[in-house]
Design a protein that fits this description.
globular; 46% helix; 7 strands; two-stranded antiparallel ribbon; alpha/beta; single chain
Length: 153
């Protein structure tokens, strides 16, 4: 059925329920899970403030960004169910550069790694900025070459 599930995340707004459902699905199908954070921003010493940096400098601070992402994912993985499931499912967390948009980076990465399902956790209500500038979820759903499972948090 599914061999590779891609879960794009925002490290500051991770849905533990969505990740739990993805791991349950992967445990039934034998799929590998990639938890992906697409970023054109790098976290500064103060996690709450972010600095936009050129792509050339992205790799220099990528490790710090990755540490923050992993720590947020680790918080979610602490639940007893996920500890059990994570032992039976092969998974990894990675940060990928978003040259123009996070949504485009996720769609491109899904194609690159051969993902056959994107598991997308989204809020029920869009912000006014998403209505004006375009919505991440709409872009992923429209341009992904594989099915997208939308989970409302």
């Amino acid at each position: 059925m599914y061999k590779h599930i891609l879960i794009p995340i925002n490290p500051k707004k991770i849905s533990d329920t969505a990740i739990r459902y993805a791991f349950e699905l992967a445990s039934f199908t034998g799929a590998v899970i990639s938890i992906v954070h697409a970023s054109s921003k790098v976290f500064s010493d103060d996690e709450e403030s972010m600095l936009r940096v050129p792509l050339e400098k992205f790799h220099a601070k990528e490790e710090k960004d990755m540490e923050f992402t992993r720590s947020k994912v680790a918080e979610v993985m602490e639940s007893k169910l996920l500890k059990t499931l994570s032992g039976t499912v092969q998974w990894k967390v990675e940060t990928i550069p978003a040259h123009d948009s996070s949504a485009n980076a996720v769609v491109s990465h899904a194609e690159k790694v051969g993902a056959d399902l994107i598991f997308l956790s989204v809020p029920r209500i869009s912000s006014k900025w998403e209505m004006i500038l375009g919505d991440f979820r709409e872009w992923v759903i429209h341009f992904a070459s594989c099915p997208v499972l939308v989970f409302h948090r």
